[in-house]
């Protein structure tokens, strides 16, 4: 049921793929494991390569969430997941957006699937092993969704324990994975609350654009409420600056403001704006395999190292 793909030639290197083209603070293989100053003047220590694992689980559950649309939640879920898998981690990606963009981005024709996460949420007898699918990335699996999930949001409202439905669904596989990443939809509705209720932490992608900080207060408010009422252990794992354009002063200023507002919560890894990411959606694979030596692939590897170190 995977999308048949026309022959997709490997991409030609772009100028921006060269490491030399990026901004101060970027870190690359071969760099000395030493302190660096990043582009907003913070003194940072290099994050080392994570040690290999001999056994797996229990999983850390990370919700990738921001109610603002188009900030790179789905792109970050796929590529962080793939980078973690490259470091030998067993990863499960949960598509928790009825749009199914995560599934499509991994080459899965979500609308044709007979069983999706919807069945796990709504049917007690549904087996998670019948819904989980492997991806093209070794060590990374997918719990797909499609538009059926929007019905779950409506149907769950009247159920007892409606905020814990996702937590119940993934519980049987927590021991099998090292990291479970939940790609949330762009809203603070019941589906996102379900993700926050079962997550250990939240990763917030924030686009380096003029209005990016708008709405963050509402998101923080929601996190506070979830912490008080549903999940006292929920932490903010970090804030990821996305859509960064190193050539414009404006995006540098926005990142500076984000660092001023959130300090050490902001990851050193910065995701540049590049056509490579829309390309990967068409290719149905992560940037770490589509353009393995690109700046974008390196940035998500650095994010993976930071996530494992936090
Ligand atoms: N760093 C980037 N540079 C350029 N384009 C990007 C980048 N990251 C993501 N995109 C593109 O921007 C669009 C939105 O990205 P993505 O789907 O990851 O955001 P999202 O937050 O999941 O969106 P939604 O809120 O709709 O779920 C996609 O077309 C994606 O290919
Ligand atoms: Mg998305």
Main pleated sheet:
8 strands, mixed
CATH topology: Rossmann fold
The name of the CATH architecture is 3-Layer(aba) Sandwich
The strands making up the biggest β-sheet line up spatially as 5-6-4-7-3-8-9-10
Radius of gyration: 19 Å
The CATH homologous superfamily is termed P-loop containing nucleotide triphosphate hydrolases
Low-pLDDT segments, ≥5 res: 18-33
Shape: globular
State the total count of DSSP E strands: 10
- Coarse structural class: alpha/beta
> What is the mean predicted local confidence, pLDDT?
88
Give the CA-CA distance, first to last residue: 37 Å
Number of helices: 11
What would you say this structure looks like, in words?
With 310 residues, the protein is an alpha/beta fold. The longest helix has 15 residues, at 295-309. Helix 1 crosses helix 11. It has a single domain (17-309), classed as Rossmann fold (3-Layer(aba) Sandwich), CATH 3.40.50.300. It has helices at residues 73-86, 101-105, 117-122, 148-156, 165-170, 190-198, 216-229, 249-262, 276-283, 287-290, 295-309, and strands at residues 35-37, 43-45, 60-64, 91-96, 133-134, 140-143, 179-184, 201-207, 235-244, 266-272. 34% of the residues lie in helices and 17% in strands. It has an eight-stranded mixed sheet with strand order 5-6-4-7-3-8-9-10, sandwiched between helices. Strand 9 (235-244), helix 8 (249-262) and strand 10 form a beta-alpha-beta unit. Residues 18-33 have low confidence and may be disordered. Residues 69-75, 97, 101, 186, 242-243, 271, 273-274, 277-278, 281 line the site of adenosine-5'-triphosphate (ATP).
């Amino acid at each position: 049921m995977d999308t048949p793909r026309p022959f997709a030639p490997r991409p030609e290197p772009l100028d921006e793929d060269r490491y030399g083209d990026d901004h101060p603070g970027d870190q690359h293989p071969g760099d000395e494991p030493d302190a660096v100053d990043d582009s907003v003047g913070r003194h940072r220590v290099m994050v080392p390569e994570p040690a290999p694992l001999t056994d797996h689980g229990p999983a850390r559950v990370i919700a990738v969430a921001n109610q603002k649309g188009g900030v790179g939640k789905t792109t970050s879920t796929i590529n962080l997941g793939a980078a973690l898998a490259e470091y030998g981690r067993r990863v499960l990606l949960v598509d928790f957006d009825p749009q199914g963009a995560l599934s499509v981005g991994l080459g899965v024709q979500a609308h044709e699937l007979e069983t999706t996460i919807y069945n796990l949420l709504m049917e007690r007898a549904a087996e998670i092993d019948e819904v989980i699918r492997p991806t093209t990335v070794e060590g990374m699996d997918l719990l797909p969704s499609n538009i059926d999930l929007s019905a779950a949001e409506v149907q769950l409202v009247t159920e007892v324990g409606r905020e814990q439905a996702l937590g119940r669904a993934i519980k049987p596989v927590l021991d099998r994975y090292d990291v479970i990443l939940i790609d949330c939809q762009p809203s603070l509705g019941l589906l996102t609350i379900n993700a926050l209720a079962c997550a250990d932490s939240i990763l917030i992608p924030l686009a380096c654009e003029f209005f990016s900080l708008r709405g963050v207060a509402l998101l923080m408010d929601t996190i506070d409420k979830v912490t008080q009422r549903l999940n006292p252990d929920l932490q903010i794992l970090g804030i990821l600056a996305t859509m960064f354009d190193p050539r414009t002063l404006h995006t540098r200023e926005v990142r500076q403001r984000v660092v001023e507002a959130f300090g050490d919560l902001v990851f050193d890894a910065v995701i540049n704006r590049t056509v490579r990411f829309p390309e990967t959606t068409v290719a149905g694979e992560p940037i770490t395999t589509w353009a393995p030596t690109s700046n974008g692939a390196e940035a998500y590897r650095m994010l993976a190292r930071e996530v494992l170190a936090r």
